[in-house]
Specification:
Elements: H1 24-38, E1 44-48, E2 63-66, H2 72-82, E3 87-93, H3 94-100, H4 102-110, E4 116-121, H5 151-154, H6 160-164, E5 170-177, H7 181-199, E6 204-210, H8 214-217, H9 221-232, E7 239-242, H10 247-254
Parallel strand pairs: 1-2, 1-3, 3-4, 4-6, 5-6
Antiparallel strand pairs: 5-7
Helix pairs in contact: 1-7, 3-4
Length: 268
């Protein structure tokens, strides 16, 4: 029997530590599939932060380095400038990226650093048991907002992707989700296009992925799918928020990457 759906080469066969119903496993697989399809496994470096993604190196079958909390864009910047032909990306949650790491993200984007950010937004601090995050939506109950997030007291949820859209160095921004098969397919396409923007040296790229966190939302895995649809998407609308503008850049992103173009003899 021919296997039509197998584990990507860029994903190790190992036990997962994520909670049941968490979306991180889906996003990990999508990233791995895209890297395999681009032929970049031997030439990719990921930067993992503090948070639920802290042990990404246990799952990705390519080079992964750790970063201090919130600093992945700064670490990725140094790597990309040193190794410009590598595919360099960060994999960050909303607490890491939108709270302690806001400055690193904004300035890397503003400089147009040729890196890619995979931003997993589950609207809560997952690893530390569900405190309010910068992306926690209004009225959402968390460990630190038991009565619900209040705009006057806590501020409004940050729409990071829209905030970055005004920066000239940012060439690709998309917000997707992983709560339905159709949205999973769109997320994979967005990740592919974001990586392609980097491989073609166009500038900074980011994909925000709305993801489930049944444990900290205190709902079942099945209910968490509806929670994304009914609560997150109305505030964080899905779609491509920014894409390359010139015809030359558009054609560049549509082209399939050449494996030979990006092969290095040495690994990091």
């Amino acid at each position: 029997m021919v296997k039509l759906y197998t584990r990507p080469e860029s994903l190790k066969q190992t036990e997962w530590h994520f909670c049941g119903g968490c979306g991180h496993g889906i996003v990990h697989r999508l990233v791995a599939e895209v890297i395999d399809e681009l032929g970049m496994r031997e030439n990719t470096v990921a930067v993992a932060p503090v948070g639920c993604a802290v042990i990404a190196y246990e799952y990705f079958n390519f080079d992964v380095t750790e970063s201090p909390h919130g600093r992945p864009p700064a670490v990725a910047t140094g790597m990309k400038r040193t190794l410009p032909d590598r595919l360099i990306f960060t994999y960050q949650g909303d607490g890491d990226l939108a709270a302690i790491g806001t400055a690193e993200l904004v300035h890397a984007a503003n400089r147009g650093e040729k890196i890619t950010v995979i931003f997993v937004n589950n609207a809560v601090y997952g690893m530390t048991n569900g405190q309010m995050a910068p992306t926690t939506i209004l009225s959402q109950r968390t460990e630190t907002t038991p009565l619900g997030r209040d705009a006057e007291r806590d501020g409004f949820p940050l729409r990071i992707t829209e905030m970055l859209s005004v920066l000239p160095g940012v060439k690709f921004l998309a917000r997707t989700a992983v709560h339905t098969p159709q949205d999973i397919a769109k997320t994979k396409k967005a990740i592919h296009d974001a990586f392609q923007v980097q491989l073609n040296n166009l500038g900074f790229s980011l994909v925000e992925v709305l993801s489930m966190c049944p444990t900290c939302w205190r709902v079942s895995p099945r209910e968490s799918l509806e929670w994304v649809r009914n609560n997150m998407i109305p505030y964080y609308p899905l779609g491509r928020i920014k894409e390359p503008e010139s015809e030359e850049e558009k054609v560049s992103v549509k082209k399939k990457s050449s494996i030979k173009k990006h092969i290095f003899k040495k690994k990091v």
